[in-house]
Amino acid sequence: MKVYEGQVWVLDFDGVICDSVEESTIAAFRTARRVWPEVLDVPRLLGDEPPAWMMRRMEELRCVVEHGYENVLLIRLLWEEQRVSETSTKGTHALRPKEIIYNWAFLKETLVIRWKCDTQALSDEFAFTRDEWIKRDRLSWLARNRLYPGVKPALLTAPSPVYICTTKHSRFVHELLQSFGITNIEEKNIFGLGSGPKAEVVANIARRHPQMYIHFIEDRLEALLETMELFLTVGMMHRLSLHFAVWGYNVYDSHIKAERYSPIIELLDLDAFISRVS
């Protein structure tokens, strides 16, 4: 059995390190209001904060989001569904969370076509909203993001190299890490939006450390499966462990599915993660 010189940890950000659903929902709501003012005719009393029912729904639906702009699509969908439900004379109900979750791939493509969306433009608008929020009130933006318990000391004491692999813009990740006091993860170790598919990013990190064993921790099963497939193809699977972060944005059904890939994919809880990385 090969003896490796050490370990490298590659971590997703949202749903592994940071619980950002509150921030992403508010940013998406503000973006949707700006992009579709004729649709989101929000009463003035709400201001620029989403209603409580929408916050609750977005917490349930966060598990379907891979790219930030999908938050904006969800906001408009929820708003329109709520309006239909309220005005229907036939008892029509809004789409239930499970209906959205299990049909999101189809729904997403349908909504992009129906609403004539440019996903890159929508992504840029979403990032612009965050940038403006930070400029106007950085402290309130930071307050809407929180670390999962125990993550900060674990990362600060990690003896092995740590990388971040995320679909979030790198500048937002770096800003949050600095504000949380996690200063030992260099900016060059953050691979954010535009870095390429996560599987490719993890493979490139593995090539950068040819004598090290790689741990990839992610809360989206699809990303783990894509990484597994690539590492099998390029013959590096013997250097990789895949960990499914069950404390993140996922549903129980995905835990059951992940168990089918055991021991290649391990279901990892937060306490075990903290213990291993530190």
From TrEMBL:
Domain of life per record: Eukaryota
Cross-referenced InterPro entries: HAD-like_sf
Name of the protein this chain belongs to: Phosphoglycolate phosphatase
The organism of origin for this protein: Porphyridium purpureum
